[in-house]
Each structure stands twice: as structure tokens, then as C-alpha cells.
Amino acid sequence: MLDVEGFVNESLESIKAQVSGKAIIACSGGVDSMVSAALVSKAVGDRLLAIYVDSGLMRKGETEEVRGMLQEMGINFKVVDAAEEFFSALKGVTDPEAKRKAIGERFIRVFEREARSFGADTLVQGTIAPDWIESGDGVRDTIKSHHNVGGLPKDMEMSLCEPLRDLYKDEVRQVARFLGVRSSERQPFPGPALAVRCLGEVTPENVAIVREACYIVEDEIGKAAASGGMELPWQYFAVLLPSRSVGVQGDRRAYGRTVVIRAVCSVDGMTATYAPIPTAILDRISSRITNTMKSQVNRVVYDITNKPPATIEWE
């Protein structure tokens, strides 16, 4: 059991010793980065600048939501629009590992640019234990390179500060509750964002489809859980497949995309079981997705695979 107060006090002292000048933090709005921002802000005050990068790969309404959370926390922050840079870096890239590494490098280049402007020499990240465990090393196999570990370029100009590196997700949530961070119960969202929920090439058009599908899945499952129709899963989202299949719209042939519904139950993200979504809720999600995106999506499927053998995200 984590001694939360003890961890926070030790972290503040460690951060003060490690960060002598100015620092920036990659702040996505997720619990990991928000807790890291809260800790470092407590330790160094206005010498921290939180950078939220709008990569063009974020969920519906995400930028506005994160902006509001950072304002509430009283943290010095800046929103950077870098969508064109990310889509350019991902052009023609389909391999999952290549995607993650391209995204990781692009994030670092944006942060280096902002760090020079701010005068920072330290990069704070919300890295947690599963990130570096799954990214592998000389002993462990690489399951998938997390963008904040395997995607870091060797010639990075800044030193790293990772206050949550040895914690698991459930422990990070405990720290978030202790610090009063609003995103303490927010479901996990991958650092590479919708790029790893868009199988195949990451284009603005493909991201727009999976963004709307993710919004519908989150909205319908959230409403069902709030009304007592099901338990709220640990994580739930949509995935867009690169393949097309034949369908019917009215009395005409349709050739459209396939969306996957993914929902899991977990504690720390290291293992997970698929969430048993009631059939009526699946039906609502499927109907809403295919009705909303009639010209693009004509098939919705439900992933019932545990972790292992699968991972939670598809890429």
C-alpha cells in the first residue's frame, strides 16, 4: 500500500534537488501528466511551464477541457498548435512502432523549441512504471515503445525529471486524490493519442472518423453507467480499422470502414479483462456510429480479448 503523503513529501524534496533552473512538462490532461505537473509546480512554482500540445490527434473537446483544468490548478501553461507538424511526420507511416517513435520525436522537438523560448533545461514527464516496462530494455522484450520512453531521441537537449516513474496507475490515482487533481478518475488515454487507434496511415480524415467514434463510445457508456445500466469500465474507446467491407444503405451497396468497440476492466493496466457491455448498449453505440457516419462506416464490432494475450490499445 502506497504511503501517499510520504511519497508526495519525498517527491517534492527530490524535485527541488533535481530541478535547479526552469522546467517544462508535457501535459496532456491525463492523470499521469497532471499529477506530475501538480507535484513539480508545488516544488518549483512559476519555474515550471506546462505545455499542452494540440497534435491534431486529440479527442473531441480535449483541448478546451485540458485548458480549463490547468487554469483551475493555477499552473503556468501554454497551448501549442502543432497539428501540421504531427501529420507531416506521420505521412505514409503505418507500422505501430514507427508511429510511436515518430510521435515521440516530434513531441520532443516541440518541447525543445518551447524550452529554449522559456529558458528551461529540464523536461518533466508523466512516465509511470508500465511505460518503461512495456518499452523493454536489454532484459525485457519490447511489447510496444511508449512515446515517452522508446520515442525519446538520443540527442535530446534537456535532462529528464520523471517523478512518477516507479508508480502504477492505481497508485498515481491515489496521489491525484490526495493532491485534489480533477483528472484523478479520468480514464487512461495513450500519449500518441488517436494515432494508435487509427490503424494504418494517420491522416486528418481517418483521425476525424475515429475521433467521432471514440466520442460516441465514451458518451454512450458514460450515460449507461450513470443510469445504472452497467459498471463504468476502466477504459473504453473506439478503434478504426484500415480495411473496408461491403454493406447496405437503403437498397444500395456500400463499401465502408469498420470500427471496433474496446472496453476493459483493470487496476494498473498491466493486465485487463474485457468489459461485458450489455447488448442493448452495444446496439445503441453501433446504430449511432453508423447513422452519424453513414458515408464512412458500415460495420461495428466488439473486442472481447483480455490482456494478455492482447494489449489494451490495438497499437
- Determine Rg (CA atoms, Å): 20 Å
Give the biggest beta sheet: 5 strands, parallel
CATH superfamily of the largest domain: HUPs
Low-pLDDT sequence parts: 142-151
Helix content, binned percent: 40-55%
What would you say this structure looks like, in words?
With 315 residues, this protein is α/β, with parallel strands linked by helices. The protein has 2 domains: 4-185, HUPs (Rossmann fold); 198-302, GMP Synthetase, Chain A, domain 3. It is 40% helix and 20% strand. The strands form 2 sheets. It has a 5-stranded parallel sheet, with helices on both faces. Strands 6, 7, 8 and 9 form a 4-stranded mixed sheet that branches. α2 (31-44) crosses α7. The protein is globular and about 70 Å long. The two termini are 31 Å apart. Residues 142-151 have low confidence and may be disordered.
Please summarize what this structure is.
This protein is α/β, with parallel strands linked by helices and 315 residues long. The protein has helices spanning 4-18, 31-44, 62-73, 83-90, 96-118, 129-135, 169-179, 204-226, 279-292, and strands at residues 22-26, 48-54, 77-81, 120-124, 159-161, 235-249, 252-265, 273-274, 297-302. It has two domains: 4-185, HUPs (Rossmann fold, 3-Layer(aba) Sandwich), CATH 3.40.50.620; 198-302, GMP Synthetase, Chain A, domain 3.
Please describe the topology of this protein.
Blueprint: H1 4-18, E1 22-26, H2 31-44, E2 48-54, H3 62-73, E3 77-81, H4 83-90, H5 96-118, E4 120-124, H6 129-135, E5 159-161, H7 169-179, H8 204-226, E6 235-249, E7 252-265, E8 273-274, H9 279-292, E9 297-302
Helix pairs in contact: 1-2, 1-7, 2-7, 4-5, 8-9
